[in-house]
Amino acid sequence: MKRLVTLSLVAFLFAACSTVPITNRNRINIVSDEEILPASFAQYEGFLKENTISSNVEKTAEIKAVGRRISRSVDQFMRTNGMTKEADSYRWEFNLIADDVVNAWCMPGGKVVFYEGILPICANTDGIAAVMGHEVAHAFAKHGQERMTSAYGQQLGGLAVAIGTSGESEESQILWNTVYGVGSQVGMLAYSRTHENEADKLGMVFMIMAGYNPEEAVQVWVRMSERSNASAPPEFLSTHPSNETRIANLRAYLPEAKAHAERIKKEVSAQ
């Protein structure tokens, strides 16, 4: 009996194993888009109702324009690489929130939030694209689903029930507040360093594909480092790689990111 259970578990995990496109990192995810996306969209809608949308018309328009360009590039990549069903499931949306918190995040299915507090760190349109690419990469690589798998993988029944309620039940609220922290001031998933490094790399590829200057991804973290040296680092950085590590990693990855972006653009053009 024990052997049967073990074999069943191995088979289940094997079926749940997949590879992140572009980086080719192996991942295990038991949470399907059909389960998570309705809840994600409901949580995002609820967040927007409970928080103040920025009145800065110019910056809001810039955030939305950058988001559309990057998400369009990601969509083209997915459709070119046989991911049409997945591409169809995304509901891209980009909003700027009137809050001084230095943060941005993206929920499963392409629901993005920028806070006004991160705009000085972005400094320019390419800086916004660097942060946008990073956040979009989290959704593209399904980092949130991986975190849910890690946190609730041993409670499959409860997980399915909680996700299936689309944010209406107490169980669902606990699930999303625990894993995503959308109800908190920071409102950002505490991704692992592996996820953060991967999102940095994918984000750089995406911003190049969309026509932005990838050098600015490095400068964003230089400015973040300068801000952190002047005061206590933002809370959301506590689970992330250090600024210095990110700067070094992004500089080292730049040639590879350019090569990936060029290859992908050729594949898209050939379709």
From TrEMBL:
<dbReference type="InterPro" id="IPR001915">
    <property type="entry name" value="Peptidase_M48"/>
</dbReference>
<keyword id="KW-0732">Signal</keyword>
<feature type="domain" description="Peptidase M48">
    <location>
        <begin position="68"/>
        <end position="252"/>
    </location>
</feature>
<keyword id="KW-0479">Metal-binding</keyword>
<protein>
    <submittedName>
        <fullName>M48 family metallopeptidase</fullName>
    </submittedName>
</protein>
<feature type="signal peptide">
    <location>
        <begin position="1"/>
        <end position="22"/>
    </location>
</feature>
<dbReference type="Pfam" id="PF01435">
    <property type="entry name" value="Peptidase_M48"/>
</dbReference>
<keyword id="KW-0378">Hydrolase</keyword>
<comment type="similarity">
    <text>Belongs to the peptidase M48 family.</text>
</comment>
<keyword id="KW-0645">Protease</keyword>
<dbReference type="InterPro" id="IPR051156">
    <property type="entry name" value="Mito/Outer_Membr_Metalloprot"/>
</dbReference>
<keyword id="KW-0482">Metalloprotease</keyword>
<keyword id="KW-0862">Zinc</keyword>
